[in-house]
Specification:
Largest interface: A-B, 31 and 26 residues
Structural class of chain A: mainly beta
Distance between the termini of chain A: 37 Å
Number of strands of chain A: 11
Structural class of chain B: mainly beta
Helix content of chain B: under 10%
Largest sheet of chain A: 7 strands, mixed
Helix content of chain A: under 10%
Distance between the termini of chain B: 41 Å
Order of helices and strands of chain A: EEEEEEEEEEE
Order of helices and strands of chain B: EEEEEEEEEEE
Number of helices of chain A: 0
Strand content of chain A: over 45%
Number of helices of chain B: 0
Largest sheet of chain B: 6 strands, mixed
Oligomer: heterodimer
Radius of gyration of chain A: 13 Å
Radius of gyration of chain B: 14 Å
Number of strands of chain B: 11
Chain lengths: 115, 112
C-alpha cells in the first residue's frame, strides 16, 4: 500500500521559531510537493521538487524553504514562523511522466498553529 | 495566468445524482483531474480526463470538453459517505515539471 507520512499531525509553535515539517514517501516517486490548505482557498502550492536536491517555487513560497537530500524525503522549513502561517500543511508525491503525474498521493497533513 | 472555477457548495439528497462543474482557463492544457477530500482527511485521486468524453469508475464519472474548457464530476446513487470536498485540477503551466494547479473545491453535502 502506497504511503506518504508526515512527521506531526498537530504542531504548535511560537512566532519567530524555526519550524521543520518532514514528509516521507515509500513509493520511489520522483516528484514531491508541499501545499498549504486554508478554508475557501483550496490547495496552494508552496514548493515542489522533481528530483533529489532540486526544488522549484510554487505559488506562495515566501517565508518558506525546502530541502530534498534523499529521494524519499522532502522537508518544509519555516525560517521564522509568523501567525499568518497558521494552516494545514499537506505533502504529496507522484511519479513523473504522462499521465502518472496527475495522480498525487497525499499525506495526512500537519495542522500548524503559530501563536 | 490560469484559473479554475467550481461551485463552492452543493447539496443533494441521498440516492440522487449530482454534477460538480469545473471550468478552466489555462495555457497548454494537459487534462483535468478530480480529487476527493473528506473533512480531516487527505485528498485522494478520483479520476483523470486527458481526452474529450466520459470516464466511468463505479458510481463516479468524469467528463471533459476541451472545446468548452469545461469538465464535470458526476456522482450517482449518492451515499452519505460522499459528503466531502471535491477539487478539480490541471497541470500547471510552463514549468515543464509535473505539478498541478487545484481549484478551490466544491463542498458536497448529502442529506437523507
Amino acid at each position: 500500500d502506497v504511503k506518504v507520512t508526515q512527521s506531526s499531525r498537530y504542531l504548535v509553535k511560537r512566532t519567530g521559531e524555526k519550524v521543520f515539517l518532514e514528509c516521507v514517501q515509500d513509493m520511489d516517486h520522483e516528484n514531491m510537493f508541499w501545499y498549504r490548505q486554508d478554508p475557501g482557498l483550496g490547495l496552494r502550492l508552496i514548493y515542489f521538487s522533481y528530483d533529489v536536491k532540486m526544488k522549484e517555487k510554487g505559488d506562495i513560497p515566501e517565508g518558506y524553504s525546502v530541502s530534498r537530500e534523499k529521494k524519499e524525503r522532502f522537508s518544509l522549513i519555516l525560517e521564522s514562523a509568523s501567525t499568518n502561517q497558521t494552516s494545514m500543511y499537506l505533502c504529496a508525491s507522484s511519479l513523473s511522466g504522462y499521465p502518472s503525474y496527475n495522480e498525487q498521493f497525499f499525506g495526512p497533513g500537519t495542522r500548524l498553529t503559530v501563536l | 495566468g490560469q484559473s479554475l472555477e467550481q461551485p463552492s457548495e452543493v447539496t443533494a439528497v441521498e440516492g440522487a445524482i449530482v454534477q460538480i462543474n469545473c471550468t478552466y482557463q489555462t495555457s497548454g492544457f494537459y487534462g483535468l483531474s478530480w480529487y476527493q477530500q473528506h473533512d480531516g482527511g487527505a485528498p485522494t485521486f478520483l479520476s483523470y480526463n486527458g481526452l474529450d468524453g466520459l470516464e466511468e469508475t463505479g458510481r463516479f464519472s468524469s467528463f471533459l470538453s476541451r472545446s468548452d474548457s469545461y469538465g464535470y464530476l458526476l456522482l450517482q446513487e449518492l451515499q452519505m459517505k460522499d459528503s466531502a470536498s471535491y477539487f478539480c485540477a490541471v497541470r500547471d503551466k510552463g514549468t515543464g515539471a509535473n505539478n498541478l494547479f487545484f481549484g478551490t473545491g466544491t463542498r458536497l453535502t448529502v442529506i437523507p
